[in-house]
Predict the structure.
Amino acid sequence: MNALIRMSAALAFSFAGFSAFANDYTAGPLKLEQPWTRATPAGAKIAGGYLAVTNTGSAPDRLLGGTSEVSGKVEIHEMAMKEGVMTMRGLPEGLEIKPGEKTELKPGSYHLMLMDLKRQLKEGESIKATLNFEKAGPVAVEFSVQSVGARTPAAGHKH
């Protein structure tokens, strides 16, 4: 009986972990994985958004930006090192998602900027957004809000 209880608990734990990040999406040949963001301090006006996009098709697509229920606008930005200095710039033409490749939007690299936040983002909640692609069109997603210092989608996850 104890083995059955342990097995049931392990199964419930594994499903709980799966459902927390079952927020993967498909739009034509694009596969969007684990959209996430970080909790923000009160009064913050920006937040970063992160996810991976895989293009399984034979033609490129382009992530152009988006909209969110919690921000005035969503833009694509890039962080890069230039002559020993970290720089950040907007990508008004969007970000190309090359065919047969996985493009990661992550801290310190390409990322979404949720600008003009309407409220504080709190750890554990989900944020609804729509990402706009040149060919795939609009894709509704939910970003899981991780801890303030999270570096990956799982870093702030708790059971």
